[in-house]
């Protein structure tokens, strides 16, 4: 597993350093010189050794377990080696290697080291396989968790056993959790709130934790493996977390600048699309070009969202009616289906983004009467209105098309996850997944 990434890392290091040395000797130096016959060839070999040692010291390619760790190590190792050779040259009072070779190698090897680290990390993940999960929880959660793990897990996992909290308690020397973990090769133990209140269950979990088994609360398991927050585990106090748009001013400003840039690009695309959609409406979708509908935005402020019309007109610029839209809704016209499947119908929302009513990424805005209904039925529903709604969102890329209250409940759990983890990296990740979904013609 480790040999190929290591081989590639060391061979790549040698090729880059010696290659740049050869280029400098034959094309940059004045006068040119014989690289392999010069003292600089020896120093190039020493630099290769320094780079290899630095890579090893920073754990490349085997140690980093996250993409961020790989990138950090891949930047740090060449920089450290370049600084080391520079200090040696300074101490000797002579430039033994050209700066072209020293800093050029550091620059070129950084992406190479990232690639080697990612190969190693990917192989390790595949070798370790999916997490083997033992869950101590009420049975009501089980079927939904199994479905989520099968359809949209952020990390691969296999739920091999679920037992009730009382069944997990130690009795007359029998410690069920230790026995099951040993029998089934469990790597992750998940405890719901009731299980966490039982001392004998917690003491067994502590022993397993010391033995290297990952122990998670049900809420943390949802976050790490499913990318959402379970409503059953939430209380008002558990939602008192920092929200990027509210608590990090710099993030809010960068996000707004990103929205404006995206909105301007979308306006150009809108201007290009209007003639074609207008002509298509004349042929197969007669009626107003646009429709406008009230939606609830940040802090509960109502605004009018703009779209290309995709359904039969009612005569006042809105759709036929405002009931839940189904995936194969008979009110959608033939051209409307094409507009929806390609997401061209969303382009007029560029104006909403420029005006600050929408963001590129955030919870999708709902109609006021739905918000009123759902706020009465779903716990903490209004928290989604603490941030600016989005053209796309975490719930849209994680969950299939939804058009009823059950779907709204499911999406709310993903929206809470977004609120809790709101940051630029997650926004970019959502935009990337959205683009992928559009090209694959998947519903959002």
Secondary structure layout:
Layout: H1 3-28, H2 39-57, H3 67-92, H4 99-128, E1 131-136, H5 142-152, E2 157-163, H6 176-184, E3 188-191, H7 193-196, H8 199-210, E4 214-217, H9 218-226, H10 244-247, H11 249-284, E5 290-296, E6 302-308, H12 334-342, H13 349-354, E7 359-361, H14 368-377, E8 390-392, H15 394-398, H16 405-421, H17 424-439
Parallel strand pairs: 1-2, 1-3, 3-4, 7-8
Antiparallel strand pairs: 5-6
Give a short summary of the structure.
The chain is an alpha/beta fold and 444 residues long. It has helices spanning 3-28, 39-57, 67-92, 99-128, 142-152, 176-184, 193-196, 199-210, 218-226, 244-247, 249-284, 334-342, 349-354, 368-377, 394-398, 405-421, 424-439, and strands at 131-136, 157-163, 188-191, 214-217, 290-296, 302-308, 359-361, 390-392.
Largest sheet at a glance? 4 strands, parallel
* Cα shape: flat
Structural class: alpha/beta
Alpha plus pi helix count: 17
Low-confidence stretches: 316-321
Tell me the number of strands.
8
Q: Estimate the helix proportion, in percent.
A: 55-70%
| Number of separate domains | 3
Average pLDDT reading: 86
Question: Which sequence of strands runs across the widest sheet?
Answer: 2-1-3-4
Sequence of secondary-structure elements: HHHHEHEHEHHEHHHEEHHEHEHHH
Rg over CA atoms = 29 Å
Into which percentage range does the β-strand content fall? 5-15%
